[in-house]
Amino acid sequence: LHSCSALVYRQHGPHYDTLRMEKWALPAVGQHCVRLKMLAAPVNPADINMLQGTYPILPPFPAVGGNEGVGEVVEVGSEVTCFSPGDWVIPVDAGFGTWRTEVVCDTADVIKVPSDITLLGAATIGVNPCTAYRMLHDFEHLQPGDTVIQNGGNSAVGQAVIQIAAAMGVKTISVIRDRPNRQDLVEELMLMGADYVVTEEALQSSEMEAIFKKVPKPKLGLNCVGGQSGGLLLSHLDDGATLVTYGGMAKKPLLLPAKVLIFRNITLRGFWMTQWKRNTRRDPHLLQSMVSSLCDLVREGRLSPPRCIPVPFHHYRDALEGTLQAHQRKHV
Ligand code: NDP
User: Fold this and answer.
1) CA-to-CA distance for 234 and 304, rounded, in angstroms?
2) Which one of 4, 18, 123, 262 is most buried, by most CB atoms within 10 A?
3) What residues does ligand 1 touch, defined as CB less than 6 Å away?
4) For atom 30 of ligand 1, which residue has the closest CA?
């Protein structure tokens, strides 16, 4: 029988020191199962929240870390016809435990991605670009020329929003936090197809009036941050627009001016990719067709993964340390 190395945790804690590299025996590959060799897996904010025990779904202990990643099929069960060795697959649901070298799973737990896209593109397609895609399609009927405003503009989701919106002909206003090397970041996002990149401070300045002379007020706002930043997005939305909250990076409640709800008829919604995937589990082609469209954008060079620092699996501490530090960054 085969075995794998896995990053396992048996308790929650504020840091990643609850993770242990363990050798696990793999079960035999059942009739409807596949054995995967994991090729690459990212560290997302939700992975950290799961380790900390603060995420709304928590896998039972002993748990393997990681929710996203790409694996290569290396063995298929006797009844499996939809996958062949060499295929690349990504998990359908959260809690898969991607931080391991190999895994045996049911065929229903993974979907295929083309293996002619970049490895990093495939490893990071299932969460952030899918979230961006759904938020751009499911809340407002956006047409070419419409505008979307978002904070966390440089987050992985924000970068996907910029690129998918550009492919749809939808204009984006992306809000970032000020920083010493701001111009470099602005240029990087503009190269991805961003139309306007502004700081949180600019949301309270005349810079916005100048922008709204060129593009219509946004029908859709995407809130990654919460707190005052989310509140400032609201004040720039068009009447009747929708603000979708999908992240709470500032760890502060959304500042919600009463006048926005009373006089401007703004709708507040939330989005959770995990729930969408669970709701559509009976209709797997919905996920498959979204992932295919996103992979087409990756192949065409119109959707690039966020800048990643690839780290060998056994140097996992570096990856986790880097992620935690990035989340604690203040810039001032
Ligand atoms: P990244 O790690 O790529 O980016 C984090 C972003 O948050 C950066 O833009 C960072 O800005 C910003 N940020 C961090 N701290 C603060 C703060 N105190 N105030 C303002 N901005 C801050 O994250 P992801 O794109 O992977 O995820 C972003 C958020 O979206 C997370 O909360 C994540 O959990 C959530 N998410 C939700 C999903 C859903 O289904 N609802 C799916 C995917 C992600 P800076 O560069 O200035 O530090």
Assistant:
1) 29
2) 123
3) 44-46, 127-128, 131, 152, 154-157, 177, 224-225, 229, 246-250, 271-273, 306, 326-327, 329, 331
4) 247
- Please tell me whether the peptide bond between 218 and the residue prior to it is cis, using omega within 30 degrees of 0: no
Atom of ligand 1 nearest to the CA of 329: 48
Tell me the residue type at 191.
L
Cα–ligand 1 centroid distance for 156 (angstroms): 7
**Gap between the Cα atoms of 37 and 73, Å rounded:** 6
What spacing in Å lies between the alpha carbon of 42 and ligand 1's midpoint? Answer: 14
Cβ atoms of 33 and 102 within 8 Å: the answer is: no
d(CA 69, CA 94): 11
User: Tens of pLDDT along 151-180?
Assistant: 999 999 999 999 999 999 999 999 999 999
The amino acid at 242: T
Write the CA distances from 328 to 58, 155, 169, integer angstroms.
23, 14, 34
- pLDDT band of residue 184 (cuts 50, 70, 90) is very high
Tell me whether residue 16 is one of the annotated catalytic residues. no
Q: How far is CA 263 from CA 142, 256, 266, in A?
A: 23, 13, 8
Helix (H) or strand (E) holding 226: none
**Burial state string for 118-134 with b = 16 or more CB within 10 A and e = fewer than 16:** eebbbbbbbbbbbbbbb
Residue (of 227, 216, 164, 232) closest to 192 by Cα position: 164
Ligand 1 atom with the smallest distance to the CA of 179 is: 47
Task: List the residue whose alpha carbon is closest to atom 44 of ligand 1.
Answer: 128
Nearest residue by C-alpha to atom 1 in ligand 1: 155
